[in-house]
Write a structure and sequence with these properties.
- The protein is mostly beta strands.
- The protein is built from 2 helices and 15 strands.
- The longest helix has 8 residues.
Length: 192
């Protein structure tokens, strides 16, 4: 999905997001689509409770901002008690090495599931400012479920050129093509 910042509509709701994800993850798997980290924890999104199921990465990004791609994007897949899915998407840009992403890279076993004994500080995979763009869409990997709440963080997080190169030896081009906006409205939440 391409997000045109000039046409995003200011969100009326308070829209706050609070995450409390576990740094001790269950496992990490090269699942044929991406590197997926199975994790637990909670997210409170606009006053509603969600449980984290897993997070995974796409290279290059599956969202563009004003038609600009990013080299990496993380999707944190959360599920509410009523089955509703909410994905927190984080864009990454080239810069300083990211310690949490480095732990993930060090635990990849190609085509296999790996136990991860080192904690992964998931907060290092998020920007400090939780301003975001929000819309309703679908999952980008099978089963492509509809009516998914997307929250795309406005501010990217840094990973190093070397880290991107390492990830791309496993997955490069595992992103879905940019989908048409159709009639969707993109909302903008400005974090103070």
């Amino acid at each position: 999905m391409n997000i045109e910042t000039s046409t995003a509509v200011p969100m009326v709701d308070a829209g706050e997001i609070t995450i409390n994800y576990n740094d001790l993850v269950i496992d990490e798997v090269d699942n044929g689509h991406s590197i997926q980290i199975d994790d637990t924890g909670t997210a409170v999104i606009n006053g509603r409770n969600f449980d984290l199921n897993q997070f995974h990465f796409h290279a290059k990004s599956e969202h563009t901002i004003n038609s600009e791609y990013f080299p990496l994007e993380a999707h944190f897949v959360n599920k509410a008690q009523n089955g509703r899915l909410a994905v927190l998407a984080v864009l990454f840009k080239e810069g300083q090495a990211n310690p949490a992403f480095e732990t993930i890279l060090q635990n990849i076993k190609k085509g296999e599931k790996a136990t991860v004994s080192d904690p992964i500080n998931t907060s290092q995979l998020f920007p400090t400012n939780f301003s975001y763009y929000h819309y309703l869409g679908s999952l980008t990997t099978p089963p492509l479920s509809e009516n998914v709440e997307w929250y795309v963080m406005e501010h990217p997080v840094e990973v190093s050129k070397e880290q991107l190169k390492t990830f791309n030896t496993y997955y490069d081009g595992n992103n879905r093509e940019i989908q048409p906006l159709n009639e969707r409205i993109i909302l903008k939440h400005e974090n103070q």
